[in-house]
Amino acid sequence: MIKNYLLLVALLISTVSFGQVLTEDFDYGMTGGDLTTVSGGAWVQHSGSSGPVAYVAAPSGLTMAGYPSSGIGGHATFSGTSQDINRAFPAISSGTVYASALVNLSAVGSGNYFMHFNSGGFRARVGAKDDGGGNILYGIGSSSSTLTYGTTPYSLNTTYLLVFSYEIATGITNLHVLSAVTPTEPATPEATNTGSTGTAISAIAFRQSSNIPAVAIDGVRIATNWNEIMNNSSVASVSIVTPADNSTFTPGTSSVDVTFTTQNIDLMTAGNQVNITVGANPTDADVTSPYAIPTTDGTSYVVTVELLENNMVIDTKMVSFSVESETQVATITDLRAGTVGNYYELTGQAFISYIVTEGTRNQKYIQDGGAGILIDDTAGTLSAPLNIGDGIVGLKGQLSQFGGVLQFVPTENIPGAATTGNTLTPLFVTAAELATNGESYESRLIRLLNVEFADTGMFADNTNYTVTTAGGTDMTVCRVVFGDEDLIGTAIPSAPADIIGIGSEFNGTYQIFPRYASDINTTLGTEEFGTTSFNMYPNPTNGSTVTISSASNNAKSVKVYSIIGKQVINTTITNTLDVSGLQSGIYVVQITENGKSATKKLVIK
């Protein structure tokens, strides 16, 4: 405990470097588990969802004599190919950033990196590989996954102290592998590398991937000089663990926990305490971590954490965060006009046209009368049972984008379907229209009219096929992407076909995603489809009328649609249809007689 802070500073100022940023001793108690959970959010996932980094419960800390973070609490371990995590600290934007960790490898493969600095890009990537004789070579990459490895063989099942650094101005990274604590930085590193410069460092990260070692890790320390890696500062201080500065929280977040730690001070002593201020006004005194701050949507917060010793403020830290608000939109057209990254509530009803049943992203395509969008639900937020043809209302989420495709990431569950059994009619689209105006059809159920495949053989998963208007040159892409459906392994048609599927895009190239084998139909390129038989002639026509006849020749309800789905004629006839008001192009004619319907394509020259 420090009784006279000013005197102590005067005594130590010539010997202590105030460059310590973060100490992580993995001291999270007697129960093991997912590190992101047991750490109370200090460690957060930034990639992958399964195979978490594990916390091995205390007492199991790795040890090295003289290292300040030796033998404290438990340790972390990982060796898989999924979850990547990081722990944030105040950003360092100049000078050199140092990190150290006790590591013990029980197995090592052909080589990959497993630990690095994180910010806007990965820096100082530390990895290991087998030297060919059952020993370990450690390596480092500044900003590339290609590492420079040292030449010294190190043993498995042995604890070493890795110290690595990134010089922000030059991009130089150095790696030291130590068997004992070294008071000063060795002149020659085990490995060095040079890469991207100017990156501010704000987190330390653990990475899982193929060929990484089986690693136990402990005693992670971040500092701006070698001395603070190897020594504990004796200055009392407070650190904010969560939230990270400038964090944003989803709408509906009712409170945010501010977690903090203190160093080199006894808070059980009278006059030693932590105070919290939110905004300009003092909020609470003598608080403990975590401290919950009530929040409302659309509000920003500035939180000041003060450490008091002997009733004097000796250290202050600040953090800013905000809670987003939702904008209500009535239609998917309005939603698609929103800003990527913002939050919205879709108040109108949308209908599910397809549910992706493979993979882990829980994707669903929805549409209304004007537009469609892809729901990307990796977290499984929409847990209520939903089916194709269901209508849903009140969907809330965040607008995002991948490969040019707009996506909606749900932030709240919905009770279930508002309506069920809805029938969705595909919009009729030509290859030329899809290629040039594909944004209008993105994530909507469409029917690509009268196209021919350039390829032969069988349909395969995750494969693009070029299709061209039958007898023409207009070209677009048919991509087979739903690998668990019955389309896979069926024959690519050699005759002209209509293709039903979901309109999509990949970086500006518009595509159609057929779902089932029945979506590829070679009998409908120029013929009618439905439940009864009609004749329509002349077709193509350059006249003002066409004749529609049937066996009974009773009154017929006729609706004519443009290829973008706009109704242009709605009338009742016996035989003669007036088409004088139609411009040249392809139209879809829906004919109903005596309760039976059929659909034909009409070409106006």
From TrEMBL:
Positions of the DUF5689 domain: 362-520
Signal peptide (UniProt feature, chain positions): 1-19
The protein, known as: Secretion system C-terminal sorting domain-containing protein
Record keywords: Signal
InterPro entries found in the cross-reference section: DUF5689, Secre_tail
Domain (Secretion system C-terminal sorting) ranges: 536-604
Pfam family name, one: DUF5689
